[in-house]
Amino acid sequence: MPQSAAxxxxxxxxxxxxxxxxxxxxxxxxxxxxxRLTGPDxxxxxxxxxxxGRFPTLSGEAERMRWAAPYLPVPVVVAMEQIxxxxxxxxxxxxxxxxxxxxxxxxxxGLVRAFGRxxxxxxxxxxxxxxxxxxxxxxxxxxxxxxxxxxxxxxSLGHPEHRHLTPGQALVLLEETAPGSEDLVxxxxxxxxxxxxxxxGRVSGYVDLGELGVxxxxxxxxxxxxxxxxxxxxxxxxxxxxxxxxEPDRDRIAFYxxxxxxxx
Length: 264
Prior knowledge:
By secondary structure, the protein is of the alpha+beta class. 37% of the residues lie in helices and 21% in strands. It is built from eight helices and ten strands. It is globular and about 55 Å long.
């Protein structure tokens, strides 16, 4: 992605966090930035700023974090404000460093084991019947069809193994290969190393929860295994499944990875 000039904190952020110093922490796309806020006493918070109303919305993420807080180590919501086209979500910092941090690179095997166990812990923390947010297959298919109808899918941004498919062809393939049943749990929705924090080699927190919801556990497992390969090497993917405590289901993995490219 071409890099424009470094962004400056929006005035609304200064109003919501007076006296706190904002430093750019992350920018995936120009419209969504994450700022590290440092208070006068050294306290740390984080602010996500969205200027385009992108999916998943920050208001939806705030809802999910408030719901998950009694069950999981997730950020505490401090403020959620929208004025005009600008939405800002401020949260308390969660202890730990994310799984891509160089601190963990001396023991990739241990890191992948912690990453797999962290997903298992997420899936067993709370029963799906308590969760009001859904991403079962009927919901996922409806979302994919809406994105296709709106023309918001850019196949060139998908994984190379899917780029030969148009969005319509991908949807047909998904409909033909959909699993006959779902093993529903509360899923993270984007389980990848930057969204998992560790302390002393163990998962201590989860962030970027805008797509949390009840879904087939393979929705998270497929993407967790995929992101293990991207970040640490494909030779570690089997260790991720083993650390989670499951045998890889190649059909479900292929299905949910293709779904990911249509809905993310």
